Amino acid sequence: MAGVGASGFRAVVLAGDGVVARFPGLVCVARCPDPEPVARLLEVCAAAAGDEPGRVLARRLAAWLAGVDGPPADLVFGTIAAAGASRAVFLSGDVEARLGDLGLSGADSAAWLDRLVPAGTGEARLALPGVADGPPPALLDLR
């Protein structure tokens, strides 16, 4: 699970078998039995990273998922990225995001979930299935 603080991006990592990545302006969680699709996902995230990567990242992720060289169905991932006065949430597969009181799930979408949420909604969390939700552990520095 990764958490995003209301004033910016801060990641809190809890035990699990996925990958948590933090880039300028975004956080990502992912899981796949094959490490290659995760590596490609992280390349897409790194290329889009910056002050407000949310919209660009969403377009690149959608193009990758829909393309002929798209990842396998067992890649599950989610991103939350800065997008002006909003946060861009992108979920693919059985991954969940919680932004304040708003709960979102990629499992509820036929292809993927792509949503802009006002930045002032409070703490944001991304979680893969099987990760216990609860208070975050001590702050970990992922710079």
| Number of structurally distinct domains | 1
SSE class: alpha+beta
Q: Specify Rg, calculated over alpha carbons.
A: 14 Å
- The low-confidence runs, each spanning 5 or more residues with pLDDT under 50, are none
Strand content: 25-35%
Biggest sheet features: 5 strands, antiparallel
What would you call the shape?
globular
SSE order, as H and E? Answer: EEEHHEEEEEE
Helix content: 10-25%
Q: Strands of the biggest beta sheet: in what spatial order?
A: 2-3-4-5-8
What's the total number of strands?
9
Nearest-integer average pLDDT: 86
- Measured between the Cα atoms of the first and last residue, the distance is 17 Å
Give a structural overview.
The protein has two helices and nine strands; from the N terminus they run βββααββββββ. It has 143 residues and is of the alpha+beta class. It has one domain. It starts with a strand and ends in a 16-residue tail after the last strand.
In short:
With 143 residues, the protein is α+β, with helices and mostly antiparallel strands. Helix content is 19%, strand content 33%. The mean pLDDT is 86.
